[in-house]
Amino acid sequence: MSETQKHPRTARRGRRPLVASLALSLGAGTVVGAGAVSTATEAVAAPATYTVKAGDSWWRIAHNHGMDMYDLAAMNGKTIDATIYVGDVLKVSNGSSAPAPAPAPAPAPSTGTYTVKAGDSWWRVANNHGMDMYALASLNGKTINSPMYVGDVLKVSGSSSAPAPAPAPAPAPAPSSKTAAVKHIVSKVNDPSTYYQWGGNGPYGYDCSALVREAMAKSGFSLPRVSHDQYRNAKSFVPKSQAQPGDLFFWRNSSTGRVYHVAMYIGDGKMAHALNPHRGLMITSVDYMPTNMLSVAGRY
After folding, report:
1. What 3-state DSSP class applies to 25?
2. Which residue range or ranges hold the NlpC/P60 domain (predicted)?
3. Which pTM was predicted?
4. Domains of the chain from N-terminus onward
5. Quick check: helix, strand or coil at residue 28?
6. Which of 188, 193, 233 has the alpha carbon at shortest distance from 214?
7. Which range has highest mean pLDDT (32-36, 38-42, 46-50)?
8. Which of 27, 47, 82, 232 has the most CB atoms less than 10 A away?
């Protein structure tokens, strides 16, 4: 995640949504160019390349080629925060000359319901019920840009009895010097008022490095603002398997050599991070995002 450009925070009214608007969930690198956005399905230009068209984004191109958008960006020496333009030729994998599949129709009405809990999003609820998030929103007369609130009752289909996501685990004991940092980052992830904001410095909107920087400050550590500099200024490095709560994990672009994402290890095989506008602030397994993850942890 590039964190060098700060976006202004959008004003909010009424109750605060659990997650930020998912308007950016199709990828930060939206096409720049005049003209109406094409709504027709796009055919792949060639088995190993794709020419960017109006309305494309990292997410859309990756989805239509069966790829992860982070892998697609890395394959082309970029990150998902890089802007793509009409006419750009991108390398792709799993290419096909067949047109991209049309969006799945909304499922038939279902008697299954789900009550929204803290930390939920359209993607998370849909994923836990085996649904497409667009279909879930449509089933409830909304779009994925509509906010949801704790206590909202949503119609669901598929496995309507699927359990809600387990609460984020309490962190394992941290070294005394990092305990405050670990507690702070966990509390921020669990706070339904927080969300991912590219260039955000809190107290509600954060990008990855701002979240880590604020947490480490609670333990008296002064870190640089961006993840690349946080990596360069770590006092030492240990194998990932030897990480202690409060240590930092980093992701580096294999083409440019620049670090673009940071997360904090909180113990018990878990890490906390501000991931992207789609997924927001999360606690995940340390194996959640292995592509481009460094094999060492930085220690301050």
Report:
1. coil
2. 175-300
3. 0.45
4. 112-156 (3.10.350.10), 179-299 (3.90.1720.10)
5. coil
6. 188
7. 46-50
8. 27
